[in-house]
Amino acid sequence: MSRWRPAPPRSTPIITREGFEALRAELEDLWRVQRPEVVRALAAAAAEGDRSENAEYTWRKKQLGGIDRRVRYLGKRLESLKVAEGLPADPGAIYFGAVFEVEDEDTAVRACYRIVGPDETDARSGRISVDAPLARAALRKRAGDTFQVQLPEREAWFVVISVRYP
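The structure corresponding to this sequence follows.
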């Protein structure tokens, strides 16, 4: 089962088309593939006899509960999300969906980020939530602009190197 983290309670209900399709595919996989497999394995474990001493049965019950929770969450969340499509009116500025490169003025380290919805963030691949401090500070900035953001460990200044939309 994949690791996931639900969106924060007051998160922005916006998502990219790719993110929406990924969540929908996850829901489909959970409901049509993983859940039936776990139910079959649970039935087989239950048929083995005494359930109080059956580790396989206990594990499969726990696994099924996790799948059912995620299915309920995804079903509700997908209904509330709004898919952002197309380019913004000003594609030279950073808005939702933008891929932008910045350079830290202090360390001269460059990084590339994409602003996405809270349900599709992945720090390792540079996909940051529109609700993240860095994304909020970068909104409406253009190539050449500088901005300040309070990071967990320090206050930082960044220069926008480039802005594009996939």
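The longest strand covers residues 155-164.
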